[in-house]
Amino acid sequence: MNALNIGDSSFLFTSTVLVLLMTPGLALFYSGMVRSKNALSTTMHSYVTMAIVSIQWIIIGYTLAFGGDHGGLIGGLNFFGLNGVGIAPNADYAGTIPHSLFMMFQMMFAIITPALISGAYAERFRFPAFLAFTLLWTTLVYDPVAHWVWGVGGWIRNLGALDFAGGNVVHISSGVTGLVIAIVLGKRRSLKSVRPHNLPLTILGVGLLWFGWFGFNAGSALAFNDVAMNAFITTNTAAAAAGLSWMFAEWIVNKKPTALGFGSGVVAGLVAITPAAGFVTPVSSILIGLLGGAICFYSVNFLKRKFGYDDALDAFGCHGIGGTWGGIATGLFATKAVNSNGADGLFYGNAHQLLVQIIGIAATYVYAIAGTLIILGIIKLFTNLRATSDEEDLGLDASQHGESAYAHVGLDGSDAGIGA
Questions:
Q1: pLDDT of 81-105, one tens digit each?
Q2: CA 155 from centre of chain
Q3: pLDDT of residue 417
Q4: Per-residue confidence (pLDDT) for residue 192, from 0 to 100
Q5: pLDDT beyond 60 at 27
Q6: Strand partners, 386
Q7: Residue 416 pLDDT > 60, yes or no?
Q8: Nearest Cα to Cα of residue 273 among 201, 209, 351
Q9: Cut 0.90: pTM above it
Q10: Is the distance from CB of 391 to CB of 189 less than 8 angstroms?
């Protein structure tokens, strides 16, 4: 019989609240990058997602992701309404912590994932459409993918693909979804004049994300052990390497290193190391971060321009691309010397691991794209997805919520401040 371990439980409780802090951090990160007339609406996307998913997860989300398996595709309803989810450990997932604590830890991942998507549709997605999309997407896309990758019997898990803390489940699924919505909605009006209104808020958000990410990655060991400490180290190392990589790439290309570029690089590095954190060495995490920062810099500054989509706050550029690189890097750099429950990657003599990583990534892309298009099609039957031209010019704070973030921003759309 499994017994609770107070040390492991305390560690995971702390990790859970660290991951919860990431969503307010994301709200700051995103809201500082939009125009002042959209600061509150952007913040609302993150905070209201916290409320929606907190309820959804309790009722049906957790059981769809981690309940009894149905053909490797979806969890059963045995944990519906948290039936049977109590203080006793569930040995299928973690034998030394309360089952209810594992559920709460996973809830925080389910919360931040749809919140990440909001970076792609910022400044133009109507609030009713946002509410419907968040609920439907979490239930129909996030929960099944979480089961595929992490649930007992999930087909990607059974295939042997590795995703330590959410490269597929969180970052690829959200980033790809964000790209689809950005394309469906079209570009923002007056796009050439758009610029961040408060970069100190954004940089504060980066700091909170970096801090909370230690719970995100180290906590995914589900115990206070050598794997958790390795994930702690590799997470910080990759973030540092990617921040510098993006900064120097930007310096070379655009002739100046920016605070926004460095912060974006840190986030890109955190994303890239997420699937690999508990499977790779600290030295490998430096390489993952360096390449992750450069690759995401290219995607944000060249790929987006080449194809002409308006991924407003680079959800796809940082999370979709960064998560994809992280999943591939796991197939290259993973080693059982770090985690005996993992696998060796290509650079340790196992080419098959890279193949299964790519299969898992490709499946997530296809499912997220198809699921998002279907959900958007359903919502369009009942309400418009995009704000009208007048609503967008006025700003979503005023047009959707009847308020403004700053005293100088009027409800008639007037704004004497920077980045109107």
A1: 999 999 999 999 999 999 999 999 9
A2: 22
A3: 42
A4: 80
A5: yes
A6: 125
A7: no
A8: 209
A9: yes
A10: no
> Which residues have CB under 8 Å from 340's CB, separation 6+?
none
What pLDDT was estimated at residue 193? 79
125: left (phi over 0), alpha (psi -120 to 50) or beta: beta
What is the C-alpha to C-alpha distance for residues 130 and 175, in angstroms, rounded to an integer? 16
For residues 266 and 243, the answer to whether their CB atoms sit within 8 Å is yes
Q: Which two tokens stand for residue 237?
A: 């190392």
Torsion of CA 281, 161, 219, 237, to 10 degrees: 30
**Could you tell me the sign of the dihedral formed by the alpha carbons of 171, 173, 174, 178, in that order?**
positive
pLDDT over 80 at 232, yes or no? yes
For position 191, what pLDDT does the model report?
A: 83
Q: Are 30 and 46 in contact (CB under 8 A)?
A: yes
Two tokens at 370? 């198809």
Superfamily classification of domain 6-400: Ammonium transporter AmtB like domains (1.10.3430.10)
What is the rounded CA–CA span in Å between residue 359 and residue 243?
Answer: 29
The average pLDDT across 339-361 equals 98
Beta bridge partners, 74, equal: 70
Task: Tell which residue, 202, 203, 246, 72, has the closest CA to residue 146.
Answer: 72
**First CA to last CA across the chain, in angstroms?**
61
**Helices (H), ranges, 313-395:** 315, 321-333, 351-380, 389-394
